[in-house]
Amino acid sequence: MMMKRVLLLTLVAAGCGALAALAYAWHGEIAPISPPPAATFDRAQIERGASLALIGDCRTCHTAPGGTTFAGGLAMPTPFGTIYSTNITPDPETGIGRWPLAAFVRAMREGVDREGRHLYPAFPYDHFSLTTDADLAALYAFLMTRTPVVATAPANQLPFPINIRLVLAGWKLLFFHPEPFVNDPSRDAAWNRGRYLVEGLAHCGACHTPRNLMGAEIRSRAFAGGAAEGWTAYPLGAQSPARVPWTKAALAQYLREGWQADHGVALGPMGPVTENLAEAPAQDIEAMADYLASLGTSASKTATPKAPAPDASGQ
């Protein structure tokens, strides 16, 4: 009799656990809307959203080679398979034209689309979740005023069970714990702005932080170096292997211009990043450089003098 009770209680507990897991994993659909006319959005808000989209590198990931900007379809290879970026133009059928602001916010902060499907973390919502309400509204205004493009991304090429989106709920339970961005009162406004952008929309850690076997960033080793599209994303701050320490001025120039005399040219995936940042507000780039420079440099490093320019004989 006692054994039957224990078995029954075990089954009840397992059932409750399964229901709780399903409740956590399930997200309802947010009702679609008619695409709002571009004239309903404030011009200043659209311009602000345009700047934020540059910092977020949105057009790079959501534009296929030879494709229309923001129409998606870019193949993103990962250790788990290939994921294709989505169409984020306001096309009502293949893009986000029927998404209300609430659906856009949920995607950015929770990694769940309008229909309630979990999004793969190749879309770095673990960073975008730090974005403020005002900035998300500005991004939404910008994207919803782009030219609608009819474009459907190819199906993701992922093995079982990763191709089942409900599996992502377990990944989120383990590794995704979003919290709002909080300013550090001991730092000035520029530093806090830089940290907000670097750790949030710019999602620098997505490439420059190592990941575990399940593809989650190892936050205890933030900015310790990672990989992106087959390229090495070098450590930032005190762990940087650069022979010449990165200063705020050097970082600002590199981010704005894609090169710096002591550190060379931005190559690989970093190239498009700097192309976007070149068009972003200068004060935001300065703020990002301020924060990145504060990550420190190795105490063992000293500046190496620049090589003298060759004379007329080429010697």
Q: What report would you give on this structure?
A:
The chain has helices spanning about 1-25, 45-55, 60, 100-110, 125-130, 135-145, 165-175, 190-200, 205-210, 250-255, 270-275, 280-295; strands at about 75-80, 80-85, 225-230, 230-235, 260, 265. The protein is mostly helical and about 325 residues long. It is built from twelve helices and six strands. Helix content is about 40%, strand content about 5%. Strands 1-2 form a two-stranded antiparallel sheet. The termini are far apart. The protein folds into two domains: about 35-180, no CATH class; about 185-300, Cytochrome Bc1 Complex, Chain D, domain 2, CATH 1.10.760. Helix 10 crosses helix 12.
Architecture blueprint of SSEs:
Blueprint: H1 2-25, H2 43-55, H3 58-61, E1 75-78, E2 81-84, H4 101-110, H5 125-128, H6 133-143, H7 167-175, H8 189-199, H9 205-208, E3 226-228, E4 231-233, H10 248-257, E5 259-260, E6 264-265, H11 270-277, H12 282-293
Antiparallel strand pairs: 1-2, 3-4, 5-6
Helix pairs in contact: 2-6, 4-6, 8-12, 10-11, 10-12
β-sheet strand percentage = 5-15%
Strand order of the largest sheet: 1-2
Query: What is the mean pLDDT?
Result: 89
> What is the CA–CA distance across the termini?
95 Å
Radius of gyration: 22 Å
**Helical fraction:** 25-40%
Total of helices: 12
Structural class from helices and strands? mainly alpha
Write the element-wise H/E pattern from the N-terminal end onward: HHHEEHHHHHHEEHEEHH
Which residues form runs of ≥5 with pLDDT under 50?
A: 3-23, 307-315
Major sheet: size, sense and barrel closure? Answer: 2 strands, antiparallel
Number of domains: 2
Overall, the morphology is globular
Secondary structure: number of strands = 6
